[in-house]
Design a protein that fits this description.
- This protein has 170 residues and is of the alpha/beta class.
- A five-stranded mixed beta sheet has the order 1-2-3-4-5, with helices on one face.
- A hairpin with a 2-residue loop joins strand 1 and strand 2.
Length: 170
């Protein structure tokens, strides 16, 4: 989890799993920065539970949540609707209130602004089909979300179309 704050703007990147230790750390970090959760936007590099699950607990209704649109774009409209319905059912089962968040689907070439910082959204499918990174401009940091793990390789989700997932990741 990372927190980017500048000029009254706050972005939380991958708030993590919904466990008390991790969520307490995020709450404490926001408190130390003088930022209320309702003043933040959230960016999910991908939708694995260890990156996204605590969003539903830590942030109030109306929070802007950036998440990849890739998985929906690559499917036919009928398939996309079926995937959306499955996604909604799974999120509701985990206790999410989907209507409460202001979901903003992002894809390659989009920009995310945090104060004076500008980040480019870059699609990096492999670990997951929906994995996106933020690449900071003008010296701002970049955020990868499991794309780079030193000493090991993250799990690689299988694409729906049967493409070689490991080759795609590499």
């Amino acid at each position: 989890c990372y927190i980017v704050r500048d000029d009254g703007d706050c972005l939380v990147v991958d708030p993590g799993a919904a466990n008390e230790v991790g969520m307490r750390r995020v709450r404490n970090a926001l408190f130390e920065l003088g930022v209320a959760p309702g003043e933040c936007k959230v960016f999910l590099t991908h939708t694995h539970f260890d990156h996204a699950e605590s969003t539903r607990v830590l942030f109030p209704e109306g929070t802007c949540v950036y998440v990849s649109e890739v998985g929906f774009e690559e499917r036919s409209p009928i398939r996309a609707e079926a995937v959306r319905e499955l996604f909604v059912r799974r999120m509701l089962k985990m206790g999410a209130t989907l209507a409460a968040f202001d979901y903003r689907f992002v894809r390659e070439g989009d920009e995310v602004h945090v104060g004076r910082f500008v980040f480019d959204v870059v699609e990096v499918p492999g670990h997951t089909l929906d994995l996106v990174c933020l690449v900071g401009r003008d010296g701002a940091p970049s955020f990868t979300g499991d794309e780079v793990i030193f000493g090991t390789t993250p799990s690689v989700d299988a694409p729906f179309d049967g493409e070689d997932a490991l080759a795609l990741y590499m």
